[in-house]
Amino acid sequence: MKIRVETGLDQLLADRARISRLAGARVGLLANPTTVDHTLEHAIDALAARGVELKRLFGPEHGVRAEAQDMESVSETRDPISGIPTVSLYGSTFESLQPSAEDLADLDIVIADIQDIGSRYYTYAYTIGLMMQACGEAGVEVWVLDRPNPITGVGMEGNIVRDEMRSFVGMQPLMTRHGMTLGELAHFFAKYCCWECEYEVIEMKGWRREMWFDETGLPWVMPSPNMPTLDTAIVYPGQCILEGTTLSEARGTTRPFELFGAPGLDAVRLRERMMAFNLPGVEYRLASFRPMFQKHANATCAGLQIHVTDRDVFESVAMSYAIISALLEQPGVMEWRTKAYEFVDDILAIDLLIGDVARREALEAGQNPVEVANAEDPMREEFLARRESCLLYK
Question: Gene3D superfamilies, per this entry (predicted)?
């Protein structure tokens, strides 16, 4: 496919003035495997070829090379390929999510370039925001290299996370599916969230808001170990909510988030209930699978596979609310996760993910899940106005 979109990294690499400035500066890079140009050359190597010497790498959740699974503490100190000293921004404590003053003391500029997937829970946006805050305090400039929102910059779903539900899967007042790029979120964080610093967003060229990732001509690189395809990203805004339950979201299989289930689940009954909701753009296949790790590891799970037939009308959040509602009707199959989740141990994971206790309680009370998913949110109007002021690609 012909390349139609140039990312912020592509734009930076072609900008002689900016490259010249970097060549004379002490530079850090916040990166992971997605930090590549349109030829799949990693920014580490592309910048080195242009005379830019990186002093330090910073790795988000999963690490610079994305070797670690979700919520797995990363303790890397040196990149295994380039050998560059590395600071993990996903350790064993909440404090590890942000670089220390010492990590930034000998830097002039930090470049942040990671592929996001357009959902509030995905932690990379907050890693960039926390980097901006730390760099603001340390007097270090941040360059955010923008990339496409792979599930479009127009689709929005879900509610705004409430203040009392803030966590690393919802640190700022965003909709579940927010319809923004990381560059736009950087402006949002600086203007409305007190994550302030001297920063610049290097914009894309050729991206339009209605584009899905496979329409950009860019190569797909897995943003994280359980985000193998664009299909995964399309269902993720809703299906990530299943992390707040004892259901397997099919980590440990080749189709995470598209498959889901548990031992003892009545898949036929579930499929009948899901079909009765008559949700647009989606079909369900009866399935069984055996996760190789995490929930129900090495046990056979009965469940469904989600097949999106029209991604332009499909609503992942409403579908996943319907799944939870239907499984609440099967006693003993699904419980809420009670173990610590993203450094929080005193709030249910389902509440952190949904971001609003009232919606979980409505599902438990048997209310129509589609109506719950689409219920009015008094914070939505303010979010939409703020979002509009931060959009770069209109």
Answer: 3.90.1150.140, Uncharacterised protein PF07075, DUF1343
